[in-house]
Amino acid sequence: MSKVGFVGLGVMGNGMAQNLIKSGQDVMVYDVRPEACDAAVGLGAERAGSLEDMAGCDPVLVMVNTADQASSVISALSKAVDSAKGLTVAIMSTIEPQELRKLAGQYKAKGIDVIDAPVSGGPVLANAGQLSIMAGGTESQVDKVRPALEPMSKAVFHVGDAGQGLAMKLVNNVITIANMTLVPAALKVGLEAGLNLKKMVEVIKASAGNNFVIENWEMALLVMDIMIGNEASKQNQLKINEKDIRAFISLAKEMGIDSGAGAGVLSMVLSDDQADKALLDKFKAAMA
To answer: Of 161, 181, 216, at which residue does a domain stop?
Structure first.
């Protein structure tokens, strides 16, 4: 397997890239913030001076925040890639399926196969190499990138053609974000009513309200610490949640569905009833 390129070493991408390196693969990394690559380079990755330097890698994994950023990455690669040799780019970010399909069509003639491979699990599981990955593309395209995906995941699911991985991710995300928003809000009310937090978690685990957040409560606290442990992190996470839910609603509309459920989750995300550091500190104290 040739050198693997990895673009975007943020909260999620850093752990993903490090697990790829630890698996023994030859990896080149790039981030607009050069210091974000330091840990990966310390483990043996090669630091790319520019995105164009990655045109010799195959595949290139992209973990950025937006569709515009993903498009900019592919545009830069297209200027240096050898179209005769070709290149596969796996977009691991959460963007809209139609945006992925547009990129795939736009760069096909330039020898770049664009597929989607979004992830689920959050930064704790990214660091542990235990993400779920939902891949969309042809069987041969997914098989080509699978060796680069497996070191960072507990499972790689091939769910269909290009864009289908993102459709699956949006379905999963609307459920995840609903749980991550509703569970802290509900437990907050329980605390104010005088209930014991440990007992609430125990009871919910044994009851119909059980879900991934409650089932993995201690890990959920670690994830919340990363995502909402300070105001800047909280606001960034709320923007990401809003983006993802709006993408789900857009997908539903594309399918001819007016998703009241999606609108309801969006309303929760935009409400003032959000977990914050003060509530997180209460949870930690109650679990001590």
So the answer is: 161
**Does residue 227 share a domain with residue 136?**
no
205 is annotated as an active-site residue: no
**Separation CA 253–CA 259 (nearest Å):** 8
pLDDT, tens digit, 9 for 90 and up, residues 73-113: 999 999 999 888 899 999 999 999 999 999 999 999 999 99
DSSP 8-state secondary structure symbol assigned to residue 194: T
Strand partners, 88: 113
Phi, then psi, of 232 in degrees rounded to 5: -65, -45
Instruction: Phi first, then psi: give them for residue 197, nearest 5 degrees.
Output: -65, -45
Scan for tokens 């790689």, then name that residue.
156
Spot the catalytic one: 144, 169, 234, 243.
169
pLDDT 10s digits, 160-202: 999 999 999 999 999 999 999 999 999 999 999 999 999 999 9
pLDDT, residue 1, reads 61
Q: How many domains does the chain have?
A: 2
Q: How many CB atoms lie within 10 A of CB 285?
A: 9
pTM value surpassing 0.90 = yes
CA torsion through residues 144, 74, 170, 236, sign = positive
Task: Tell me the per-residue pLDDT of 217-253, one tens digit each, with 9 for 90 and over.
Answer: 999 999 999 888 889 989 989 999 999 999 999 999 9
In this structure, are 179 and 96 located in the same domain?
no
On whether the CB atoms of residues 213 and 179 are closer than 8 A, the answer is: yes
Nearest to 148 by CA among 9, 7, 285, 16: 16
Cα-Cα-Cα-Cα dihedral sign, residues 158, 163, 164, 167: positive
Contact 247, 94 (CB under 8 A): yes
The parent domain of residue 203 ranges over: 167-287
